[in-house]
Amino acid sequence: MPELPEVEAARRALEAHCVGRRIRRCAVADDPKVVLSDRVAFERAMVGRTIVAARRRGKNLWLRLDAPPFPSFQFGMAGAIYIKGVAVTKYKRSAVKSTDEWPSKYSKFFVELDDGLEFSFTDKRRFARVRLFDDPETVPPISELGPDALFEPMSVDNFVESLRKKKIGIKALLLDQSFVSGIGNWIADEVLYQSRTHPLQIASSLTRESCEALHQSIQEVVKYAVDVDADSGRFPIEWLFHHRWGKNPGKVDGKKIEFITAGGRTTAYVPQLQKLTGTQSGKAVVADPRQVSNDGDAKEAGEDDDDPKPRKRVAISRAARGKPPSRKTNPMQLSEDGGAKEVGADGDDDLKPRKRVAISRAARGKPPSRKTNPMQVSEDGGAKEVGADGDDDLKPRKRVATSRVARGQQNKDAASAPSRKTEEIAGAKKKPSIEHGSKNSVKTVESHGAGATGNNDHGLVEPSVAVHRVSDHGVARTSSRKKTKPVKYQ
Predict the structure, then answer these.
(1) Is 59 a catalytic residue?
(2) Is 3 marked active-site?
(3) Which of 128, 138, 322, 338 is deepest in the core (most CB within 10 A)?
(4) Could you report the per-residue pLDDT of 443-481, keeping only the tens digit for each?
(5) pTM passes above 0.85
């Protein structure tokens, strides 16, 4: 992302090559997201005007012409100024190669001067803004900016006094353009690293010594980067800048670099050197490496699908914000500090799913689920292990039957219930009965029950099974199973 050094390099290039030249031709892109003024009126207002000066505050640049209105450029994530045949600056994003078409297809504002020189403002990612103002310094966004970190540096005393009034994390404060304009993500990380300040340290809790070290780091880093025209290849090798980019950053000066989220941005810091002091610190969420883009900054939403599991991430986020766990979070899956812990981390978490659900409902003051067998619920409402007492060592079939009775359903005898295949047999088919002539001999006889044919004709089935058993003494005993009520099937 272009920050103060990159924008200042563009301003100096325009001042050196374009000031005093008259605009012969102007082309503004038909892109209302980037160009916030009428395109046709914009082009007409530029043609014939002479460039008097190039001005900058923070990360905003504008051209002063011999008469208003004046074009203003907010660089956003990937804005850049290119002058044909002139090396302006090189930074990590949006470098248009010399072999590319000219003007670039990403050009939003193109100008041809009276001596033939051409320059263009480009933006690949469309986060930049191009506007037309009568007086850019008196209207937002420029009028809302704080003092420029290069042109209007605070004195040490004013800087210390300002920090004492701020109850937010120091990284978030440095990114606030109304506090100091021009400091972006990589400069903030660099000055905090060089001053040995933790990004989440509350600004008001910093000692005067720490404030002075931070003030000095801001001046040194900004000035050095501007002096080398924002050419990162010329930055000192010991800077954090060279090691903070990418998903696997490695180490700086032999010490490991870690990522956290501070001020809403992915933040690189060295825990061994940048330590939190006191009891106050900004709230942090550990940045997942998969949420860091190749250049080390936070990725745009939806840039890829490599997100961690949603439930665990939400639990951590709620704990970090000091909020109670979500109702969907199982209390037994929370660690002592409120964060989510892995299932099976201790003895309380290696429960079967059924037991964990029952406990969750009891913890919320609700009765057990209808699917929960009452015989598997302990006296305090929680689930108990099967086989823990005599009531639970039931066979699966018997336990199912008990559950059906508990729900008020009729317990049907599978042996006597007719099947659908039997019911679909047309005509007056007779039901067989079984007669036992002896203990070891079985024969089937037909039973001509009265009205059997009539019942079948009306869709009714009335099974009747008589079993004759012969005892050892030759006396026949007859047992009859209880008949089920007639059932009419639709």
Answers:
(1) yes
(2) yes
(3) 128
(4) 444 444 444 444 444 444 444 444 445 444 444 455 555
(5) no
Task: Verify whether residue 2 is a known catalytic residue.
Answer: yes
Active-site pick, 5, 6, 8, 59? 59
**Closest to 49 in 3D by CA, of 73, 69, 72, 23:** 23
- Of the candidates 230, 182, 318, the one whose C-alpha atom is nearest the C-alpha of residue 327 is 318
Residue type, 25: R
**pLDDT at position 218, please?**
98
User: What are the tens digits of pLDDT across the range 384-408?
Assistant: 554 444 444 445 555 554 555 555 5
In this prediction, residues 436-447 reach a mean pLDDT of 43
Is the pLDDT at 18 greater than 80? The verdict is: yes
273: left (phi over 0), alpha (psi -120 to 50) or beta: alpha
Residue 91: the pLDDT is 54
Other Cβ atoms less than 10 A from the Cβ of 407: the count is 9
Catalytic residue among 3, 112, 118, 435: 3
CB 295 within 8 A of CB 235: no
For the chain, the average pLDDT equals: 74
Residue 276 phi, psi dihedral angles, 5° rounding: -75, 140
Q: Can you tell me the distance from the alpha carbon of 203 to that of 262, in angstroms, rounded to the nearest whole number?
A: 13
CA distance 467 to 84: 107
Q: What is the largest CA-CA distance in the chain?
A: 133
